[in-house]
Sequence to fold (222 residues):
Amino acid sequence: LSRLSNTDFSNECFPFGTCQEIEVGYAKAYALRITYVGELGWELYLPTEFTGPVFDLLMREGAELGLRLAGYHALDSLRSEKGYRHWGQDISPTDTPLEAGLGFAVSFKKNSNFVGREALERQKESGLSRRLVHFLMDDPEPILLHDEPISRDDELVGMTSSGSFGYTLGRSVGMGYVDMPDGADKTWFEEAAYKIELGGSQFSAKASVRAFYDPTNERIRS
Fold:
């Protein structure tokens, strides 16, 4: 991008989660610094007639830097490692942001009565009965997909919502909702023995309330 634009893409001038209008090649585009793969990057929004030429310019300038195309399965693998939720699998209209571990995205300081606010406030006060948890398989052989039964200390507590082989971590990673008692904390989730069933066999896995890959988000800042 720096080869095709005069915009300063440094972390200081273009922080994560911000958007700027930039010139890229012969086009103007909205550059949104966001990521669904867990790495430093931008999404570009530009008029349809410029997408082809800008794409060609990016591929040409990026060739000597090792730029290459990746498909949807690569995207799914990377977002699974980073713990980014997928709409329709990990989150749906039947799940709340608090259950999905996305409470940070909800502001209760707003004066407006947004849709679902009262329900969320009641759930926040009463406590959760289920929560989305990240899983990392101990064995590199089994491949997680979705809807695999999750056992905690040999008791069925939920199902995986999605999963994929994580090539950075060298084994499958996934997410799933786990039933939890009142007052359960991070320790309750992470210090138990978990097993995930695939094809009738039980495989041990580690659980975490944070992503196993780059939980402190250093990779999206540099």
User: Anything to note?
Assistant: The radius of gyration is 20 Å. The first strand starts at residue 19 and ends at 24. The first helix runs from residue 48 to 62. Strands lie at 19-24, 27-32, 43-45, 130-137, 149-152, 155-166, 171-179, 194-198, 201-208.
